[in-house]
Specification:
Layout lengths: L9 E3 L4 H8 L6 E2 L14 H19 L4 E11 L2 E3 L5 H11 L3 E12 L4 E13 L4 H11 L18 E5 L11 H10 L6
Parallel strand pairs: 1-2, 1-3
Antiparallel strand pairs: 3-4, 3-5, 5-6, 6-7
Helix pairs in contact: 3-4
Length: 198
Amino acid sequence: MNSFDSGRLLILGSTSRYRRELLQRLGIPFDIVAPDVDETALPNEATHAMAMRLALAKARAVALLHPSALVIGSDQVADLHGQALGKPGNHRRATEQLQRMRGQTVVFQTAVAVVCQELNFEQVALAPVVVQFRELSDAEIESYLLRETPYDCAGSAKSEGLGIALLDSIQSDDPTALIGLPLIRTCAMLRAAGARLL
């Protein structure tokens, strides 16, 4: 019998392979359900508020379909001097993002939420990660993007891979937050909802 014991189905409300791989580290069974959520920013919305709102909205959307399950939702917004940077989607936009971020401090606002409708349980937490980018040359940016193609990552870099070579420093109290799911906060919320992880 698995040590995850809440008597409830655990669902990751995300199609992100990065979040799936992170949650798998806990060695507990879970299902994946894609949340149907509009991720458009609200007018004048702060990046940290946007990340928390979307994490909670994703968890709530899936919890509506599975009211007895524990549902995890997460969102990440890269913040460059107050401006949100999304997933670039292609090489040109990734190049532009990294050119803007070179030599700059970027805050990756990573939020996670856990919701269970049946328990009337709902928590959300923010795990900001402060990242200092090196002064990158255009040649370094081009070489990196061709080798790792991080077009599905907010901020155009994968710190868990070659992207670490783009950075001077990372400051975080939840080490997996930069990859997309802050596991320390996730575990704390699952325990608060009655789940036994160990």
